[in-house]
Design brief:
356 residues, alpha/beta, 434 Repressor (Amino-terminal Domain), Rossmann fold, 3 domains, 14% strand, elongated, disordered C terminus
């Protein structure tokens, strides 16, 4: 037979046993006599047989792996999500397969193809369409991470709108600012859409004129530098900018201070996420802390509970709390009492339960 790989059927023929017996011996399961076991092991050793993973998975209806679907991996946010998710998967010896769609036109087809190779999927909100999520949910367990899916699909997320509104009200009510601009593209992400809505909601709650259209840029530091250039070209510059995430805010900070603008005296800057760098820059960044690792860890626990077939109704539809972290970039004095070097105000937590 040369160097080609033998199939389980050929090993069974050589050993004079059934295919099921070869599978029981190679997997170390089931009742097999010692004489039969030795005969099968001799055939396996002599011919270098290795069980095919896909065939084993089909037989057991298990792959021992779950999928994690992101639009990309750049920046600290996705690193934190991966670490939180993996911390739970490793406890059950479950492999994690990561698919980055980069929001290509064929993203939905790629995710469906991946679904045939894993026991369950966690999909970052907004990465694939709701129709595709519904299709996937009919195939295998699926949980939406940091976002919402169709009504019947479990999700673990935060309340972006309430958190952004709390931050914006702090600037409008506590600092008396009136000229604020939002930096971020609501059409590029469900998270940014909700944060933009929270920004507008705070103005409505205080009966203030609605802000102008957002400065539509991406979510990385170079995008923030570009946004700073746009802000500073205004005939009447804003008093503050509310950025869709910390990376953008750090870029705005670099762009503004590089042009001689004082923060917060001339321009207030705030972010969202509370990445580690937010507390280390000068001035430290006022932001919203979201429990990024815990979002991913809770998603993984929920997904693994269902894929393992654990009894009981899984807890679904979770909304985890966020906190407003007040630091120097908004004009407040920075406290040194906390390891995050800022005062912390937590938003209320809501929780919804939905059937899997």
């Amino acid at each position: 037979m040369g160097n080609r790989r033998l199939t389980v059927r050929e090993i069974a023929r050589l050993a004079g046993v059934s295919v099921a017996t070869v599978s029981r011996v190679s997997n170390g399961t089931g009742q097999v006599s010692e004489e039969t076991r030795r005969r099968v092991l001799r055939a396996i050793e002599e011919h270098g047989y290795r069980p095919h993973h896909l065939g084993r998975a089909l037989a057991a209806r298990r792959h021992g792996a779950v999928g994690l679907v992101f639009p990309g991996l750049s920046g600290p946010y996705f690193s934190e999500l991966i670490q939180g998710f993996e911390s739970e998967a490793v406890k059950t010896r479950t492999s994690v397969h990561i698919l980055c769609t980069h929001l290509r036109a064929d993203s939905d087809a790629e995710v469906i193809e991946m679904a045939h190779r894993v026991d369950g999927l966690a999909v970052l909100g907004g990465t694939v369409s709701h129709d595709t999520i519904s299709e996937l949910a009919a195939m295998l367990p699926i949980v939406v991470l940091a976002g919402d899916g169709p009504a019947a699909v479990p999700a673990v997320r935060i309340d972006n709108t309430a958190a952004a509104a709390l931050l914006t009200r702090h600037l409008l009510a506590d600092h008396g600012l009136r000229r604020l601009e939002f930096v971020g593209d609501p059409s590029g992400s469900p998270d940014v859409t909700e944060r933009w809505e929270g920004f507008r909601q705070a103005h409505r709650q205080l009966e203030l004129p609605l802000p102008r259209a957002p400065i539509r840029v991406g979510l990385q530091q170079p995008d923030g530098v570009f946004a700073a250039e746009q802000v500073l070209r205004r005939a009447i510059p804003p008093q503050g900018v509310v950025c869709a995430n910390d990376e953008t805010a750090l870029g705005v900070l670099v762009g503004a201070t590089g042009r001689g603008v004082r923060v917060p005296e001339d321009l207030v800057i705030t972010g969202f996420d509370d990445i580690p760098m937010a507390a280390l820059v000068t001035p430290p960044l006022t932001t919203v802390r979201q429990p990024v690792r815990e979002l991913a860890a809770r998603t993984a626990r929920l997904l693994l509970q269902v894929t393992a077939g654990e009894p009981g109704q899984p807890e679904t539809g979770l909304v985890l709390p966020t906190g407003l972290v007040i630091r120097g970039s908004c004009g407040c004095p920075t406290s040194t009492d906390s390891p995050t070097t800022g005062r912390h105000r937590t938003t209320s937590t809501s929780r919804r339960s939905r059937a899997m």
